[in-house]
Write a structure and sequence with these properties.
The protein folds into two domains: about 90 residues, Urease, subunit C, domain 1 (Roll), CATH 2.30.40; about 280 residues, Metal-dependent hydrolases (TIM Barrel, Alpha-Beta Barrel), CATH 3.20.20.140. Helices cover about 25% and strands about 30% of the residues. It contains eleven helices and 19 strands. The strands form four sheets. Strands 1, 2, 3, 4, 5, 16, 17, 18 and 19 form a nine-stranded mixed β-sheet that branches. A six-stranded parallel β-sheet has the order 6-7-8-9-10-11. Strands 12-13 form a two-stranded parallel ribbon. α3 packs parallel to α4 and α8 crosses α9. The longest helix is centred in the middle third of the chain and has 18 residues. Its EC number is 3.4.19.-. Catalyzes the hydrolytic cleavage of a subset of L-isoaspartyl (L-beta-aspartyl) dipeptides. Used to degrade proteins damaged by L-isoaspartyl residues formation.
Length: about 400
């Protein structure tokens, strides 16, 4: 029940210096300069973090935990994610989403998978719905889903400005956001609306019109894939300057980057240089989602699969390649998503919060150890706990 991590340098994500951290069950009990362990007190497990950084467990706010895809027919439905696909990437909290396919995968599947992953050791939440509007909920109502179902923290991913969307009107989107907002208020949850941004010309028009013409605040929306092309990325800079939250997708392909997608590590550097608040930027992986390719006639021509491991990969690149301060880079996958999604026990190494901690090698910044809810999931880069069917 008791673990002490000794001799590590702590980023909470702000830098705290060298500290010892006591884990009591699933929680962080104490953070002190030094925690002395009584001799012959065998019930305390000691983890030596010499030459390692301690950082908060990563939050991936957009993962197709039941699989995604299907744009190329039944055989292109991507498989369910496995536990070590998540933990080897340093992720200790995931938000599950459906996508294009809200028919062969549904909210019952999503919640069951979320509960399964939680039984295997990590924290899991979900959004209600898929690309389509009206939203396909569990209870028949967005507000009821958010208020009554513990796992549901918002709506998403709803497709906007995409040929695969259900082409809802601005008013349709406004009603979705209004229901989500009230559901969040009544339940103490974020009630966020996670929006899949496509390549269409309308881009953020609908969101900005809703913010301008209704009482719904800009922070009610979490548009993702905002780095998918140069035009949308430029729009993301202005949107974030207005106080909007922008989410960049770390899973990509060489072809996507060559065609104009902005690499996440570079996107973060650009936005910070442009004066965007570091608290308004998040990364997510789109893990286990399909990475479909379409030709100029919007015909399906190929498929890849998103990886949760890409999440920290881009943060590491932003530190090593873009020379960003470690605490700012870490925030996009720790404290920022925790704050945006109102996950009060996540995103920080602080006394009383969940014991979700990642140990990084100081020299390489590679993931060494992953602790989720006080349990060691990965040690020395190898999985200690595997999923039920791994």
């Amino acid at each position: 029940m008791l673990k002490v991590i000794k001799n590590g340098e702590v980023y909470c994500p702000n830098y705290l210096g060298q500290k010892d951290v006591l884990i009591i069950g699933s929680k962080i009990g104490y953070i002190m300069d030094e925690i002395n362990i009584p001799k012959n007190f065998v019930e305390i497990e000691v983890i030596d973090a010499t030459n390692k950084y301690l950082v908060p467990g990563f939050i991936d706010s957009h993962v197709h935990i039941c699989g995604g895809g299907g744009e190329g027919g039944y055989k292109t439905r991507t498989p369910e994610i496995q536990l070590t696909d998540i933990t080897l990437g340093g992720v200790t909290t995931v938000i599950g989403v459906l996508g294009t396919d809200g028919t062969t995968r549904n909210m019952g599947n999503l919640i069951a998978k979320a509960r399964g992953l939680e039984e295997e050791g990590i924290s899991t939440y979900v959004y209600t719905g898929s690309y389509q509007v009206p939203i396909r909920t569990l209870t028949g109502n967005i507000q009821d889903d958010i208020v009554l179902i513990d796992k549901i923290i918002g709506v998403g991913e709803v497709a906007m400005s995409d040929h695969r969307s259900s082409q809802p009107t601005v008013n349709d989107f406004a009603k979705v956001a209004a229901e989500a907002r009230v559901g969040g208020i009544l339940s103490g949850k974020a009630g966020i609306v996670n929006i899949h941004m496509g390549d269409g010309k309308r881009e953020l028009d609908f969101i900005e019109e809703i913010v301008e013409n209704t009482e719904i605040p800009i922070t009610q929306f979490l548009p993702t894939h905002m780095n998918r092309n140069r035009s949308l990325f430029n729009r993301a800079i202005e949107y974030a300057r207005k106080g909007g939250i922008v989410d960049f997708t770390t899973s990509t392909t060489k072809r996507f980057l060559e065609e104009g997608e902005t690499k996440c590590s570079k996107a973060l550097k650009i936005l910070l240089d442009e004066g965007v608040s570091s608290g308004n930027i998040t990364f997510s992986s789109d893990g286990q989602g399909s990475l479909p390719e379409f030709d100029e006639r919007d015909e399906f021509i190929g498929l890849g699969v998103g990886k949760v491991a890409s999440l920290y990969g881009e943060v590491r690149d932003s530190i090593l390649d873009e020379k960003l301060p470690m605490e700012k880079a870490l925030k996009v996958i720790t404290s920022n998503p925790a704050d945006v999604l109102k996950l009060s026990n996540k995103g920080y190494i602080e006394e009383g919060r969940d014991a979700d901690i990642v140990l990084l090698n100081k020299n390489t910044l590679e993931i060494d150890t992953v602790i989720a809810l006080g349990e060691i999931m990965v040690l020395a880069g190898k999985p200690v706990i595997r999923g039920t069917f791994e």
